[in-house]
Amino acid sequence: CRETVSNYCQEVRQLGFRLEELISESLGLEKDHIRNVLGDQGQHMAVNFYPPCPQPELTYGLPSHTDPNALTILLQDQLVAGLQVLKDGKWIAVNPHPDAFVINIGDQIQALSNGRYMSVWHRAITNTKTARLSVASFLCPEDDALISSPQELAGRDGSSGAIYRGFTYTEYYEKFWSRNLDQEHCLELFKMNTIE
Ligand code: OGA
Ligand code: NI
């Protein structure tokens, strides 16, 4: 019912904020750094329903992608597996765990962290027998948020400098939707020293 969903959204949001704080600290930044950069974060929820598929080898439930937002909190179907992530060039099944969420780093945290955290390539497969349901909650920067990696992560100390140029989330978003989804990774378009 409405109240349950509303509570869920609020709790998931708080969890996302805590994770952003912990990620900031793990990068040696102020605890609030990521939250400050992302501003008043948008939150979207997708309820994905994957019906049984007579020939799962011919199609994906969801083709390979990275999430274009900041952070995704995914509640998997507890009974039916289907999520896979790309690790070291291989697709690995992420089977559901009781009482556990799957957390995806999205493109914005990859850019913000200057590539120290990488957005994960993932996809969903189907099966012939059982429908599958998942609930994804996406935390997104506010439209005007300026996404750029802080000095501490982008060099000074002889490392290679910023990988990506600064951009607003709106700018990213517009690029993202103006391409075909099977084209190169959208973040590639924001690399330093690339000519468009
Ligand atoms: C998504 C997603 C995976 C799943 O909604 O972006 O990756 O298991 N979902 O449904
Ligand atoms: Ni996804």
From TrEMBL:
Pfam families, A to Z:
2OG-FeII_Oxy (PF03171)
Would you say which domain of life the source belongs to? Answer: Eukaryota
Q: The Fe2OG dioxygenase domain covers which part of the protein?
A: 41-141
Descriptive protein name: Fe2OG dioxygenase domain-containing protein
- Name the species this protein comes from: Linum tenue
